[in-house]
């Protein structure tokens, strides 16, 4: 069978998939018994499955397809680059025009103090690069004790050893005996889940100060960096209270540690600015990027590195012994350039800020009135609905956390829309090209989904 074949019936495809394909983050025993959904094509914000169903891609793939599916400009740029130079590396005093052009472009888009990019193929590799880069930076600065990297519980920074370790997903740490040494986790700014005994404003400051407490407890001379997503994505679209980032900013300005803003989800317009840290007015020393860099058309990631860190790393005049075969891959770089050109030409970042972002938010927040929803939240084009068993008592959780969320996700699929479930939060992150009409459709489908999920949960005694 060829990879392009659409002539096989769904069941045959599912059986072959079950026989040979191990999926990420999956219970393969139950998935193989159930059968995977087979997506065969996509256009704009719409996916088509092997049964011919049209599905609204409320997650932009996996938080990445900023410009929507099926953009021929990217295909053409990739084809052209493939024909010219399909591959060459960037090791051994070598470079090539796509890597040069993309680096210049990224330096222009990044804040003024950031002018350099190190390439890799994914967000996870970007964070592995960060891990080695911050420790090496302090070594070169002569501060060899500065090793500890502070991350946050329920943060997500990837699946590799460093990515998993920097992230704060306990279920991931449990597999592979992680985190590696020298990583410390502090509380997350999750007001709905963990802070409702305080006002959001007080909770934001309270939880930001956990960073200060951790630095003091470990010792500033031992802390290398703090890493955080501007808004936690995979953790459940945790939008921090407004007081959180200003307080973190104050702490970072007073302490000599590096700040790593993980922009893998929040970068490239998701929050209505080019980078999430710009949205919150914080100044990163390093920014891991991936996903929206190419809109997922080809795998590419990188670390945007500030002048301060570049200068530090260059101090000793020796190699930074780190790199990947596909660092700066010419075809991926061509895809990234074409993608960024579309984002700029179509004004997608501003569109999120002033048009589709506020339009969708107004309608999405109204879903917060639903009997099943304890909180609706949205910033830019990422949002969440917290499902609760008792609306009058929003701190109460479902007895079996995650089961109602998974049910709701499945109902949403039946209604023709991808919403992802994280615990019992339903989350969306649609392509930045979502039209007003599609936004209306998204909200109407979410409402239908909530109604049906509510009915089933009531019937089955969950609430
Ligand atoms: N950082 C963040 C914030 C992410 O959301 C992700 C992926 N969801 C990663 C890193 C890892 O990226 P990748 O899956 O490309 O390795």
Automatic annotation (TrEMBL):
It comes from the Bacteria. Its cofactor is pyridoxal 5'-phosphate. Keywords: Aminotransferase, Pyridoxal phosphate, Transferase. The lineage of its organism: Bacteria, Pseudomonadati, Pseudomonadota, Alphaproteobacteria, Hyphomicrobiales. NCBIfam families: PRK07480.1 (NF005682). Gene3D superfamilies: Aspartate Aminotransferase, domain 1 (3.90.1150.10), Type I PLP-dependent aspartate aminotransferase-like (Major domain) (3.40.640.10). GO terms for molecular function: pyridoxal phosphate binding; transaminase activity. It comes from Roseibium alexandrii (strain DSM 17067 / NCIMB 14079 / DFL-11) (Labrenzia alexandrii). This is Adenosylmethionine-8-amino-7-oxononanoate aminotransferase. The keyword Metal-binding does not apply. CDD domains: OAT_like. InterPro entries: Aminotrans_3, Aminotrans_3_PPA_site, PyrdxlP-dep_Trfase, PyrdxlP-dep_Trfase_major, PyrdxlP-dep_Trfase_small.
């Amino acid at each position: 069978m060829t990879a392009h074949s659409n002539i096989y019936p769904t069941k045959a495809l599912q059986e072959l998939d079950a026989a040979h394909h191990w999926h990420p983050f999956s219970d393969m025993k139950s998935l193989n018994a159930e059968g995977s959904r087979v997506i065969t094509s996509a256009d704009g914000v719409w996916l088509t499955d092997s049964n011919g169903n049209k599905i609204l891609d409320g997650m932009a793939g996996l938080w990445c397809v900023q410009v929507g599916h099926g953009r021929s400009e990217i295909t053409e740029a990739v084809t052209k680059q493939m024909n010219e130079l399909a591959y060459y590396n960037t090791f051994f005093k070598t470079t090539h025009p796509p890597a040069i052009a993309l680096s210049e472009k990224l330096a222009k888009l990044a804040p003024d103090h950031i002018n350099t990019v190190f390439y890799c193929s994914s967000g996870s590799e970007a964070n592995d690069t960060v891990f080695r880069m911050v420790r090496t930076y302090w070594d070169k600065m002569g501060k060899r004790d500065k090793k500890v990297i502070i991350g946050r519980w329920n943060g997500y920074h990837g699946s590799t050893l460093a990515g998993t370790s920097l992230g704060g997903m306990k279920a991931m740490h449990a597999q592979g005996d992680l985190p590696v040494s020298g990583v410390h986790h502090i509380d997350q700014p999750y007001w709905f889940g963990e802070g409702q005994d305080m006002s959001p404003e007080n909770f934001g400051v309270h939880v930001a100060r956990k960073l200060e407490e951790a630095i003091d407890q470990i010792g500033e001379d031992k802390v290398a960096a703090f890493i955080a997503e501007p808004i936690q994505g995979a953790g459940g679209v945790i939008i921090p209270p407004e007081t959180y980032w200003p307080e973190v900013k104050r702490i970072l300005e007073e302490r000599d540690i590096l700040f790593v803003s993980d922009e893998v989800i929040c970068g490239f317009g998701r929050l209505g600015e080019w980078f999430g840290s710009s949205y919150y007015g914080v100044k990163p020393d390093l920014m891991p990027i991936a996903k929206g860099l190419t809109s997922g058309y080809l795998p590419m990631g990188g670390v945007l590195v500030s002048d301060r860190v570049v200068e530090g790393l260059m101090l000793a005049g020796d190699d930074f012994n780190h790199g990947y075969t596909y660092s700066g891959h010419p075809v991926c770089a061509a895809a990234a350039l074409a993608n960024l050109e579309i984002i700029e030409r179509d004004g997608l970042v501003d569109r999120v800020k002033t048009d589709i972002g506020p339009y969708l938010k107004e309608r999405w927040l109204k879903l917060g009135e639903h009997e099943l929803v304890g909180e609706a939240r949205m910033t830019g084009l990422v949002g969440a609905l917290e499902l609760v068993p008792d609306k009058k008592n929003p701190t109460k959780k479902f007895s079996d956390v995650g089961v109602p969320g998974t049910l709701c996700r499945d109902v949403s699929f039946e209604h023709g829309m991808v919403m992802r479930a994280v615990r019992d939060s339903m989350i969306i992150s649609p392509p930045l090209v979502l039209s007003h009409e599609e936004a209306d459709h998204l909200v109407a489908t979410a409402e239908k989904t909530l109604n049906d999920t509510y009915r089933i949960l009531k019937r089955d005694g969950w609430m």
